[in-house]
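Model it.
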Amino acid sequence: MAEDFTIYRRRLPHWRQTGVTYFVTWRLHSTQLPLAPNERTVIVNSIEHFNNQRYKLAAHVVMDDHVHVLLKPCQPYHLQQILHSWKSYTAHYLQQNYNRNGCVWQSESFDRIIRDEQEFNEKLQYILRNPFKRWPEIQDYTWLHTMPVDWY
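Modeled.
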């Protein structure tokens, strides 16, 4: 294992290491109604805002009740900072502009270090299929984005 590899636990285990790719997901708080289309756009814009500055995005999808992201943090940024930025900014924005009350997101998120190219491709396919599994009748999903990557 690398020297900077750490593990900590809240309710879920979290593994951290510099220079790795992560699959991350988080959900709306159980008290919240599903995200409207314009709210999903706000979240997509927030996720994409610092792409190639604080992190490199491979793919992301914003569903009506959860978000999946495949990313690689850039130095000196850490995954915890990136997630906090996304969740706190979007929660505040949705509360101020869309009259959402209380906790918008569940307090914890799930994250996983991607260990190899095969796992990267599996998570990428999972993200790409996510909206079409939920809504098989749709042809295109506006809040699904992939970016070319050069780290695998």
